[in-house]
Amino acid sequence: MTELQLSLIAIGSSIVIGVISYNKWQEYKARKSVERAFSSAPEDVLMRDTAPASGQRREPQLDDAAPQEGSDEHPAVAEGEAPVDVAGNAAPDRARQPQKALPVDELIDCEIAIELEGPVRGEKVLPALQGLGHVGSKAVHYIGQAEDGQWEPVATGGVYTTLRAGVQMANRSGSLNEIEFSEIVTRLRQVADEIGGEPFAPDMTDVMATARNLHQFVADHDAQLGVNVQSRGAPWSIGTLLAALERHGFDLRPDGRLVMQDGDSGVLFSLSTNVTLAEESTTRLTLLLDVPRVAPDRDGFGAMVACARMLAGRLDGVVVDDAGQPLADAALAEIAGQVAGFYAEMEAADIPAGSVRALRLFS
Prior knowledge:
alpha+beta; Cell Division Protein Zipa, Chain: A; six-stranded antiparallel β-sheet; 2 domains
């Protein structure tokens, strides 16, 4: 081997060693940067009680005094009037009297009555209803009218004179279709034969029209807002970053998503590292708010922006939009105003954001 070849080998080896050393140094810097960013634990707005105190900012609502879903009053029904659904059809008469919160919702469910030959115990009814909790992607729930005239979820120990099945008419995946409607009616006939009853389904044409209108509302209000935190320098180490985020209140789900809970078992917003868990580093974090699933008084957008700013400050990053452009305070304030208007629209439709009704529709 010539002297020139030996020299080239030595130079090449030096370059390889230098590159490896540089990469290790960058990895060390990124890890230490994240560790330093989360080494202290100053007061964090995301770790406080999410209920707004007097004088604190909250998103405006259409009517703060309006009855909440599940209360004894129906907010869209005047005294002596029958409730009306999103398609303008009169809802079943059972809602005219005060009722406890029920799993069958007159606004979003197609109700099918099952008239019984005589009182039936819940123990007899429940086995017949097992296995009929969904039709397609639509949930099916059941209620029974007790001997005192009150409606309640079908349960062991109850005695019922009439039953109602409620099949959800829409969700994010689509509206109830003719095949699904025919399937639920057919299967309910089989159930009715077992327990001694007769189902009475509404007109399919009317149900399909209502279902399409309801799904159109879902499509028009299916809004998700995101902000990003972009690194100004070296990538962040995934392992160190995830550990730090979990310590600061994020919950790591099996699918790899990180979520910030709202203090009541719900999700306030989520966070993505934009890489798989197998990756060693990332340069961008994305925070996402599922707007119709978060109640206005949770101030999900404000909490998400506050979290993004906190992360940017601690990780030497900058808050940017999806195109990588910095988000100014004025732009964020404009978006917050649009969110407030969005909430007002949902409230006016009697589908308040974050309510049980909204959570079922936007699923």
